[in-house]
Amino acid sequence: MNYSAISAAAPAPFVLPLNLAADEGSPEWMSKGDNAWQLTAATLVGLQSVPGLIILYGGGVKKKWAVNSAFMALYAFACVLFCWVSWGYRMSFGDTLLPFWGKPNVALTQDFLLQQTYGGYKFPNATMVYFQFVFAAITLILIAGAVLGRMNFYAWMMFVPLWLTFSYTIGAFTIFCPNGFLFKKGLIDYSGGYVIHLSSGVAGFTAAYWVGPRLTKDRERFPPNNIILMLFGAGMLWMGWTGFNGGDPFAVNVDASLAVLNTHVCTATSLLTWLTLDIIFFRKSSIIGAIQGMITGLVCITPAAGVVQGWAAIIMGLCSGSIPWFTMMVVHKNWELLQKVDDTMAVFHTHAVAGSLGGILTGLFAEPKLNDLFYATYGEYMGLFYGFNMGQLRLGFRQVGVQLLGIVFVVCLNVVTTSIICLLIQLVVPLRMSEEDMEIGDEAAHGEEAYAIWGSGEKHEQRDLSM
Question: Which residues form the signal peptide (predicted)?
């Protein structure tokens, strides 16, 4: 036998191109594509906050509160990052301390940050820490929307790290972390409808109760100082949601594509539904109303984005554009508690109501095959409608029950922890600014104003020089 001929005919060993080959900086377990998308998705979510919500809040309040409102968002973003890497991430996604809480630890050493992240996902811990940080940050910034126009900034500075530590980390560990008890029970929260939106809506409403209302004249008339800026911020919020929901499969796969498309379909449907109701009942096509409808659509689809079909995304958009509209325009005006609590940006309706709605609808529409793509467990996660269709009623009803249990847990957690935090802060500094400072606004809080109009900037400068 001619062994040399056989050897000559054998194909050459396959060699990866240099840009794909593993090396010390790109270990074999890491996917460069997944890592690149995860960093991009995280940055898109970060842009929703800085500058998205900074601009939305700064344009959506009275001129005298533009600086304060924007600065509350900027401070929260920076403060959360410091706390997140110092102890928050490991409390949310680390080793179990309690069934609902992880052990505090730093996420700063290279030995930890350069390791492959949990769950076998193909990127390092550093990427996951960054991705989960932007979600934690936007949650605090959404809470700020409920207390704009009167919360003492020093109280807010204390509230952010306390709430992150004693509320957000519990919700994230319980629902997002594989060690959490609601995760183990099979709660479907694809991208934070519970952990982020329901939490921020309930916590914001609770904080607004303890902080107290704005000045009476501000509650009666609080026109946006710049609607065009509001639209710009809203647009960044909408487009940034591509990373919000598209990043949660933690991979560049078909589920990420589906989640992105479902997100935008639901949001567009919700906006159009809200706009239609405004025109029918108020004879006005309100821009602010359209923004509210956009937000409720984004929130509602979040727990379901990659686990429902496109037709379900449209139904969810119809619901998110109508049910929160009804609670805001009808129920709010006839419920004494809602009237009593001054929720500046209507966070309760746009996030608590829409987030709960999304969680329940997820329990109805979650498709088994899509859940298998996300959870890699076929037949365990099943919406009620598919349970009827597939003769698995027990699984369908169980899923709805788990979704409702998650709502009860998040609501109770945030009412209790937010109340305790506010009461403790009140022992140190007032939660609410003084009446005199609220009359003035930004200049009293920060010594700065958003716009120098009619020579006011020169006037203040001259006054400062004379002191």
Answer: none
